[in-house]
Amino acid sequence: MEGVYSELHSVVAEVGVPVSVSHFDLHEEMLWVGSHGGHATSFFGPALERYSSFQVNGSDDIRQIQSLENGVLFLTKNNLKYMARGGLIIFDYLLDESEDMHSLLLTESSTLLVGGLQNHVLEIDLNTVQETQKYTVEVPGITIMRQSSRFFFCGHTSGKVSLRDLRTFKVEHEFDAFSGSLSDFDVHGNLLAACGFSSRLSGLACDRFLKVYDLRMMRAITPLQVHVDPAFLRFIPTYTSRLAIISQTGQCQFCEPTGLANPADIFHVNPVGPLLMTFDVSASKQALAFGDSEGCVHLWADSPEASFNPYSRETEFALPCLVDSLPPLDWNQDLLPLSLIPVPLTTDTLLSDWPAANSAPAPRRAPPVDAEILRTMKKVGFIGYAPNPRTRLRNQIPYRLKELDSEFDNFSQVPESPIGREEEPHLYMVSKKYRKVTIKYSKLGLEDFDFKHYNKTLFAGLEPHIPNAYCNCMIQVLYFLEPVRCLIQNHLCQKEFCLGCELGFLFHMLDLSRGDPCQGSNFLRAFRTIPEASALGLILADSDEVSGKGNLARLIQRWNRFILTQLHQDMQEQEGPQAYRGAGGSFCSSGDSVIGQLFSCEVENCSLCRCGKETVRVSSTLLFTLSYPESHSNDKTVKNYDFAQVLKRSICLEQNTQAWCENCEKYQPTVQTRNIRRLPDVLVINCEVNSSKEADFWKLQAEFAFKMAVKKAGGEIPKSRESALADWKDLGSPKGRPLCTSIEELKNVWLPYSIQMKLTKNKGLDVSNWTDGDEQSPLREEEGNVYVYDLMATVVHILDSRTGGSLVGHIKVGETYHQRKEGVTHQQWYLFNDFLIEPVDKCEAVQFDMSWKVPAILYYVKRNLNNKYNLSIKNPIEASVLLAEASLARKQRKTHATFIPLMLSEMPQAGDLVGLDAEFVTLNEEEAELRSDGTKSTIKPSQMSVARITCVRGQGPNEGIPFIDDYISTQEQVVDYLTQYSGIKPGDLDAKISSKHLTTLKSTYLKLRFLIDIGVKFVGHGLQKDFRVINLMVPKDQVIDTVYLFHMPRKRMISLRFLAWYFLDLKIQGETHDSIEDARTALQLYRKYLELSKNGSEPESFHKVLKGLYEKGRKMDWKVPEPDGQASPKNSAVFSTVLAL
Question: Is residue 524 part of a domain?
Fold first, then answer.
């Protein structure tokens, strides 16, 4: 093979023992050789340096070798062994003694096919090391297996090559290549080439014609005549699709599969033994390996520096022995140290051992992780992985680590840890419960995600994957305000995109949930349609939300101002012109609302010009923004302010500005002051911490408050900053009580739990911090116009550069809600972080570490607020929503109506059956990533929107006739109509061109809510997903899902189409899906279920029905036969026998 391949090396693997198999490692630069004696040997690199050698089987020969990422698979007659490259056994799988295996094929990263001379092929899962499937083959004797993107190729000893389906392993095509037996074959692209033996009069003879098949037309093309007796062949596709044909005597010929063989292209391998036994080609096509009958291995390559793989990883070698021999000892030397003489190990105490009291274990601190690793690291669950930066030698680290700074600050520094806080402390200082939570999606979607791990309470969290779900924490704050919750749920109007209505629907779901998370998809859908929300920049693009580009603290404060103003407008009791001011948060209206009574503060804005002209304007504001004292550059001292002082300054704001003076008829410097005429019931405060200046103010005031709290309790602050935090807890008060249970409680007392406010007679306002039990309160409530406000919620911005940050809320849940939800009477603070809900100590609500936890919004409520408002909830949805309504579609005709609305006489009652089915369209495609191991990981699921909802009558003379068949109009862009599965076509949801009964989502939602509230039972197939997309919470006792009625534990879910064919002899969902047909079929299946359950006197009888269903499904591959195919199983003897039971 001069000019193409030449011999590099020949080595002996095992003297005198024939080589049975050779294999180039697919991951490292290694060549594996197996012998007839069951011994395996590996050689490294083109020099064939011996790497490892070990016994695989003591009696049988090694028949095939397959290299994996972490080890190598060895196949013997009835044994499959997985071993590390050094010889360590990972697992040893014994097959039946009657098995005679010859071939194996790795189909996926963890699935293996094993075949041999028996009439079946085994499928083995390498993760569980268990047989998962046994495929029966018609023609026994599979000795060679190959795979392409379309088929499994199986070579039989009878001379046939069968092409099998990748999923079912059924024969799709078959080539009868040779009349004798098959010797070898290979596949490349659209060509299959095979060599073998043909039957002659005297027996079998080697056929010098290679059979070549075109896999596109599935037929043979012109055979290729060669000049050697072919025993092995391989495609070597470098520039052309060359074939290498090898004879057992050592002759080798290269030729094109579609051309003529040239005798001049024959070369000779020089085996030591008489016969060549194995042949293999490296993945790079640069090297060929031959094994002969004397145990020698011959390596041929196209260059001396040939590599076996395009991208091989580094091979791990054993460390060399650093000491060749021990130094000699002179026994005659008196000063010889006794420690040089090795002594045997003993369990007794040695005289030189230190006493236990004088010693302590001192583990070596782990070094910080390389910054490059942290930068490139990706996380899967709680495991991170990153490429090796090659910055240090293997198994070596510097013994001396970087010492800590001697001036360690107990409050600002973060302890060292193995995950590298020394380089980037802000990455890991965020407490785990405050970090952004994400949903891990699997093949089953959300079914196997454990939300209970994040929420042990009966409160309902909110899912975060919906666009613009950054406001989840504020929704929870509004929900736990009892007057707001009751008011919103009593509200209902005709406006399609009313935030009040949608928020009421969401609050109703939060009421019904018993710890399961809800999603505010419908509320956020309405929120995105409000023009003012877009104008204020409250609508985030998906890319900005994922990357965290938006300033969440500023965003949630603007959202807080917007939602209060919008709810006030939606809830106004009287109609009238309104002036919306999103930026200022003030409003003027001809009427008032309960939202206005709760949140609005009547203020008097006075403008005084320097000419003496004073202008007074009365308005209302729904919230206040903190205004911080300005520090002068020449004043280096930091002043101490109470929170009450800052709050009073912010409410009674005084500022100098340019304003128009009607008296001067020009803009003049004006002093503007704000006086309070009426205080709100709920005091809402935006903290406005948007820069380091405000953050430093909070930090310094917290330190001042801490020092004052310690001194007030009679303690002293140690001068040394090296004192441990544990010592500070021992500070005592003059009364002998412990100063605090936690140093954190004293460290963050600047924000009070209660404040007291009083309106004075001269329109002034007095504000002071209030402490329960304080005997010297500056204000007395009996003086009138004195109110105590308790802290009810804090919304904080969590700074985390890894995830872009998040928003969480601390909410104080009162006795009323606890009594209704959990049956207990107490108050408790909770952390709400999307679907993570956890009880916390009250000091955490006012504890702000400005480096990662920044306050954004504060809610103070008047004490005994609930006694002032009516907290009863009356369901505003009436039966009239089910009556006939006009369609939004302009082209819809009554003759095309697909449903008959309910009459007043047939209104459903509690317990009535209603068949339900829904169809959906896709608004956003699924976002997924392909991992390094080839598996697919879902980052964000596709966003679905309901497009059609159908309800059919479940009893009565009109059973099976739909009374709701609504197509849902949508203004959002549809990415995929999913016509094959939904039956929805482009234009069906457009009011201008649709011929369907088109309505709004809110209208249909009200119909379903009414049915749920009166207690009907819904029958359908896969209702859990339907209700999730519709955004409904339905009690479990009102849902009858046929997907679970006909389901066996730990088995697959069965489609409605297959169940209808099997039990009802119906063939549905032909070209597209029809929701009326699906809902009606689900009702019939439920009737069949009741019939089967009633006929069976014992539970085992219905179990036999399900068992027969699954057996039939496996045989049919869960496919319904075509009209001229197999008949329905209703007439089968097995089915009839089971029914008879």
Answer: no
179, with CB counted inside 10 A (0-12, 13-18, 19+), is: middle
pLDDT value for 408: 37
Q: Indicate the helix (H) or strand (E) that contains 586.
A: strand 586-589
Q: How far apart are CA 733 and CA 724, in angstroms?
A: 19
Instruction: Give the Cα separation of 547 and 802 in Å (integer).
Output: 9
Phi, psi torsion values for 484, nearest 5 degrees? -65, -45
**Rounded to an integer, what distance in angstroms lies between the CA atom of residue 679 and that of residue 310?**
76
Domain count, the chain: 1
Of 1076, 1062, 1069, whose CA–CA distance to 1113 is shortest?
1062
The mean pLDDT of the chain is: 83
Per the listing, tokens 């003529």 go with: 260
Query: What is the distance between the alpha carbons of residues 559 and 1038, in angstroms, rounded to a whole number?
Result: 37
Count CB-CB contacts under 10 A for residue 135.
16
Rounded CA-CA distance 308/288 in Å is: 9
The answer to the question of residue 377 being in a domain is no
Per DSSP bridges, beta strands 1039-1041 and 1017-1020 are: parallel
Q: Is residue 545 part of a domain?
A: no
Beta bridge partners of 860: 683, 791
Q: Check which CATH number belongs to the domain holding 918 and give it.
A: 3.30.420.10
pLDDT at residue 710 in the model: 75
Position 968 pLDDT exceeds 80? yes
The Cα-based distances of 1088 to 303, 1062, 1076, 1102 in angstroms read 73, 11, 19, 12
Cβ neighbours of residue 495 closer than 8 Å, sequence gap 6 or more:
501, 570
Q: What is the four-CA torsion angle of 167, 173, 177, 178, rounded to 10 degrees?
A: 80
Instruction: Give the pLDDT mean for 939-960.
Output: 89
Name the pTM for this structure.
0.61
DSSP bridge pairs for 666: 661
Residue 329 is predicted with a pLDDT of 72
736-790 tens-digit pLDDT: 334 444 444 554 568 999 999 998 877 788 898 887 655 444 444 445 578 999 9
- Whether 926 has a pLDDT exceeding 80, the answer reads no
Average pLDDT score over residue span 345-357: 78
Question: Given 3-state DSSP classes, what are the helix, strand and coil percentages for the chain, each rounded to the nearest 5?
Answer: 25, 30, 45
Flag whether 897 is in a domain. yes
What's the rounded Cα separation, in Å, for the pair 396 and 393? Answer: 6
d(Cα 984, Cα 175) in Å, to the nearest integer?
45
DSSP structure string for 835-857: TEEEEE-HHHHT---TTTEEEEE
Query: Which candidate, 900, 1015, 875, places its Cα nearest to that of 960?
Result: 900
Q: Count Cβ atoms below 10 Å from residue 817 Cβ, excluding itself.
A: 16
Confidence label for 361 from pLDDT (cuts 50, 70 and 90): confident
> Distance between CA 967 and CA 87 in Å, rounded?
65
Other C-beta atoms lying within 10 Å of the C-beta of residue 263: 9
CA–CA separation, 388 and 377 (whole Å)? 10
Q: Is 917 annotated as a binding residue?
A: yes
Q: Consult the annotation and say whether 334 binds a ligand.
A: no
Confidence band, pLDDT 50/70/90 cuts, at residue 1038: very high
Angle at 775 between CA 773 and CA 777, to 5 degrees: 100
In whole angstroms, what is the distance from residue 770 CA to residue 236 CA? Answer: 86
Contact 155, 144 (CB under 8 A): yes
* Orientation of helix 1056-1064 relative to helix 1099-1115, angle to 10°: 110
Task: Locate 381 and state its tokens.
Answer: 């669950």
Neighbours of 860 (CB within 10 A): 23
pLDDT at position 263 is 65
Write out the residue range of the structural domain in which residue 1021 sits: 879-1140
Q: In what helix (H) or strand (E) does residue 511 lie, and over which residues does it extend?
A: helix 499-512
Q: Is 919 annotated as a binding residue?
A: yes
The residues, any chain, with a CB within 8 Å of residue 350's CB and separated by 6 or more, are none
For residue 943, which phi and psi values (nearest 5 degrees)? -90, 120
According to the annotation, is 1078 in a ligand binding site? yes
